[in-house]
């Protein structure tokens, strides 16, 4: 088992406010005893909850990330498959979540800070983070060691 060298949990706190409002709405609908109306908001609440947190983990040999507690969906990349990394920003129009962008995939739940990874297969991706500089301070030395 490979232990984490660095791990960050990125939270999207506004989701919890939305969930509170949706819960209130569902409770009001249930008071009216309208059958089936609660199903839509309940499903949306569960989906929102699943994507309220992004955990990114760096170990000695790989980088992995997943949303919330269920770890699905989850991704993992061997450090040897990363050519380079840099500090990046996501635009406000790119939004949050799992996004297909012109510059590759974006995985983010809040803010605009990110690290961009250039992969050996020619693809690029960005992982959202509160502190991209700190991430780079842990990631760059490991990538440099693999290129020697």
Automatic annotation (TrEMBL):
TM stretches of this protein: 12-30, 36-60
Domain of life the protein comes from: Bacteria
Natural source organism: Undibacterium oligocarboniphilum
Protein name: PH domain-containing protein
Keywords: Membrane, Transmembrane, Transmembrane helix
